[in-house]
Amino acid sequence: MSKILVKTGDMPREEWLAYRRTGIGGSDAATVCGLNPYSSLITLWADKTGRLPDKEDNEAMRTGRDLEEYVAERFCEATGKKVRRRNAIFRHDEYDFITANIDREVIGENAGLECKTTSVFNKSDFDNGEIPHYYYVQCMHYMNVMGFDKMYLAVLVMGKAFYWFEIPYEPDEGVALLKMEVDFWNNYIIPDVRPEPDGSDSAKETLDAIFTERVENMITVFEQEEIAAKLTEIKSQKKEIEAEEKRLQQTLVNALETNTRGITVNYEISYLSRPRSGVDSKKLKAEFPEVYDKVKTESSYNVFGIKERKGA
């Protein structure tokens, strides 16, 4: 049986975010499993260990919170069921670092309700019962913590349709998820061990965020020799592939001559002109220096480089 970690009824958002860092919540579960396209293990580690600032509120997050009550009402209207808020962060009865902040509890059933708002660009085939993996894992996480027999998932696709799904608890999946979460906490959070990056945009952004102040020096990283060699080989192969790609493309453009489209047995080829606009910064600076000074911006970014050492 789950236990209440803290009441959240009148809790300020900043305090709620601080409590989120003390454990693995439902929105973290898919990241632990490698099923969150927007976050990575190194990002989750950096967040839980206080190395990242609070996530800036965006329009999608704000919309989801504001429409949560509406989505819950639509669920009740569609199913005839009744739900209630719990206004608390719960924790697992065995692992106090595994927590849950459920949207609603279904009255008269051992079940909860998760409310989601998404856009028409979500590629999931909701019409045929397809649920995004990260929604499903979040619901399984809540069932692990709360001891629910099932979760209901209500999804509002903005401007298109409303869907609801019943997700029964799967013991094998629940146990597997719990093990992954416990392993992540014990292997990375407790000993403060940084996970390896996975190549995602999330991982890159995290590395740039936690290593902001760089010192102009050189260190030895001999243990990464194999990685450096493999990367150099891949970059060389990439150049060859890109060169071959350009050659093949030019061969097809040559075959089209002055035509914009062409067909083979199985393919359609096009070579079309597209308008492009921009600002000639050199001309702007020369002819309108005051305007240039007002609109120019300065920023920095990290550039990765690797080359073979001479004489090594």
Briefly characterize the structure:
The protein is an alpha+beta fold and 312 residues long. It is built from eleven helices and ten strands.
Mind explaining what this structure looks like?
This protein has 312 residues and is α+β, with helices and mostly antiparallel strands. 42% of the residues lie in helices and 15% in strands. The protein is built from eleven helices and ten strands. The protein has a five-stranded mixed beta sheet, with helices on both faces. It has a three-stranded antiparallel beta sheet with strand order 1-3-4, with helices on one face. Strands 9-10 form a two-stranded antiparallel sheet. Strand 3 (88-91) and strand 4 (99-100) form a beta hairpin. Helix 3 (41-48) runs parallel beside helix 8 (201-210) and helix 10 packs across helix 11. The N and C termini lie far apart (62 Å).
